[in-house]
Amino acid sequence: PVNVVESGGGLVQTGGSLRLSCTVSGLYLYDHAVAWFRQVDGQEREVVSCLSDRGGRLPYYADSVKGRATISKDNAQGTLTLQMNSLQPEDTAMYYCAVDPGYNLGNCPARPVMSDFAYWGQGTQVTVSS
User: Fold this and answer.
1) Fewest CB within 10 A of the end CB: N or C in the chain?
2) Running DSSP on this structure, what letter comes out for residue 88?
3) Hey, how many other C-beta atoms are within 10 angstroms of the C-beta on 60?
């Protein structure tokens, strides 16, 4: 079975930084797009960033995090990360790591949504205090 585990969340002050990590086992990340989503209670889960496996494709970032977030992955290690800087209270959410099923040659969709991804972690909470 595929197992996805996030870590790195926590409480941080406004303006601070966090580095979220995700470890994927049971599946090689080659030819799989990966993404980070976030969800606030009572709201829909929204994409934060998506990274295609194909070289040369720029990562997708939601407008709300552009310039503050950096996504990366290590296929050999089976890990992906999300570096978040200049955190704001509105970044407070549960953050989820996601892996696509590999049907799209490792490419992120133009506007990634939950249904594009097959494997999910349990989430890691990020809380930004004002």
Assistant:
1) N
2) -
3) 20
DSSP secondary structure string, 21-47? EEEEESS--TT--EEEEEE-TTS--EE
E-assigned strand segments in the chain: 3-7, 10-13, 18-25, 34-39, 46-51, 60-61, 69-74, 79-84, 93-99, 119-120, 124-129
Question: pLDDT, tens digit, for every residue of 45-71?
Answer: 999 999 998 667 889 999 999 999 999
Residue with tokens 């790195």: 8
**Structure-derived torsion over alpha carbons of residues 109, 114, 118, 120, reported in degrees to the nearest 10:** 120
What does the alpha-carbon distance between residue 21 and residue 53 come to, in Å, rounded to a whole number?
17
Q: Name the token pair of 71.
A: 């996504």
CA–CA separation, 22 and 89 (whole Å): 23
For the beta carbon of residue 34, count every other beta carbon within 10 angstroms: 29
